[in-house]
Automatic annotation (TrEMBL):
Gene3D superfamilies: GTP cyclohydrolase II. This is GTP cyclohydrolase II. It comes from the Bacteria. PANTHER family: PTHR47259, URACIL-REGULATED PROTEIN 1. GO terms for biological process: riboflavin biosynthetic process. Residues 223-373 form the GTP cyclohydrolase II domain. Residues 9-197 form the GTP cyclohydrolase N-terminal domain. Pfam families: GTP_CH_N (PF12471), GTP_cyclohydro2 (PF00925). The lineage of its organism: Bacteria, Pseudomonadati, Bdellovibrionota, Bdellovibrionia, Bdellovibrionales.
Amino acid sequence: MEKEKRSPHIILASQSNLKFKETLPIKWGAQTAMERGPVVASNTNHKARNAIGAHSGSYTVYRALSIASGKFPPMHRPDLNNTQSPVKIGPYPQWKDPLKMVTVDPWGLDPQLNFKPLFEEGYDIRPTISVTQAHLQIPEINEAIDKGRLQVDGSIIRENRDVCVTKVAIDPVWYLPGVAERLNVDEGDLRRILFQETGGMYPEFITRPDLKVWLPPIGSSTAYIFGKAEDLANPKVELTCRVHDECNGSDVFGSDICTCRPYLMYGIEDATRTAQRGGVGIIIYYRKEGRALGEVTKFLVYNARKRQEGGDTAATYFRRTECVAGTEDARFQEFMPDCLHLFGISKIHNLHSMSNMKYDAIVKSGIEVVNRVSIPDHLIPQDAQVEMEAKKAAGYFSKEPKKTTEELKKVTGRAIKE
Ligand SMILES: [Zn+2]
């Protein structure tokens, strides 16, 4: 049991003698996994660590609670036997370009295979991506089958109406020089502000400029693939894609102030239909709740919108968010395409999104977009008309004309107590 204990000795990151022979270099964007080198952030051997932060994003804190309460052996190493992906994903040329993907580590998929010799040497390299297969049971898909928009085909949609998918969980791994470059800021400034805004959580931002990779304590992303995963990289195969930012209130609870769940479900329906006609579909779900401002801010904005003079109108939709949060949007879609490049995507035939920020980021990253698909009107809840009309007026993509300022004032939502 003694062996299970980690040394209680605390090592301050500001100590200068922290480079060890066990520390492997990371050459971001190298041609092979072994040349690139693994990201080692596990705590079982601090001498081998070559990244800032810890694995599992925000769940790091729960792991700490488990260890503190004696329920989790701190020296535990995962047994990765049989955990590998059931489908082949990559490697793609995008994996070997140091600037194409700066917030995802593609070699974090099945590291026990990619870095086999290093595992045999005893390195504790943890996966940051995992892949599995599942069946989805969704009321909106049932309705689409009832109405004849989707058909049971026995493979993509089973006889019991289950939709078969491959799903991929992606933890964030940030290559700081690439993140700085994408934002067009100095890496030193970025590191200093990250240090300050996290309340000094990661002194290595300042003390260890040699460490270039950070595992940020934020949510992961999840991709749902309809059809064959390897077809995503083939530009000749029709691809339907939705890049969806989390909205717990609508996505999970069916709250009607926005169009998030209807749009998500329409994306799933269309991705399924595309797979059934020989194409492939992908929905990527990003944990960026409330435009990455968080749900607390979001609910404050809802109240401010509904209580303002004149009520909740499309004319004042964006302004209220900025008043409360300091910015209209904190999602930084610049990094969103990284998850598309993970799958080797170079062409999207049908992009389900009305957001110009998403569209621009995708196109700028080198992916061709053929059609943009907006949500059909009949799927928009009444109270969400405010959001929809405000977005269209602000230049979001839609096939319908935008409303004038006077017309926007007439698009109103429910009052706060209704
Ligand atoms: Zn929403």
